[in-house]
Amino acid sequence: GQIPMYYNYNNTGRPATWIPSLDEIGVEAPQTSLGNTSFYLDSGIKPLFPFGYGLSYTTYEYSELTLSTSEMIMNDEITVRATIKNTGNRDGEEIVQLYIRDMVGSIIRPVKELKGFKKIALKAGESQNVEFKLTKNDLSFFGQDMQFKAEPGEFKVWIGTNSVEGLEGGFVLK
Questions:
Q1: Distance of CA 136 to the CA centre of its chain
Q2: Quick one: average pLDDT of 87-99?
Q3: Residue in 67, 72, 50 with CA at minimum distance from that of residue 140
């Protein structure tokens, strides 16, 4: 019932001003747009489970997000690292996910884009450093001129367990 909700939607710049709960919608109420908003009247603005969500028999803690530099040169690369710890009583496997956001582009850009993931196995109480490398190619997109290119500017980066939770950092592409 929540299709077509997806994680990498475009930012409309029009947040919902009133979000009714299902209990507030009367029986046989007409479905109206409530103005220029983007959400589903019958299910709220967020999916029940975010993209990348998964269940586990243990718990994980993400910490120590570091970027190799705060300014990336166009043909260079940036390394993003985080420490993941199994804080539960059981061994487990976690899928660590890397997302980015281009804050200002010549065309509208998604609020988050999955750029990498790694599956790691952790024993109870064990920690592991996970590292991702981002290059110009990872930051590129097809512009209005249909050329695949990266544009200088500010980027946000997240490492987390799904598309909603995680550690956030940022850098500038020059």
A1: 19
A2: 97
A3: 72
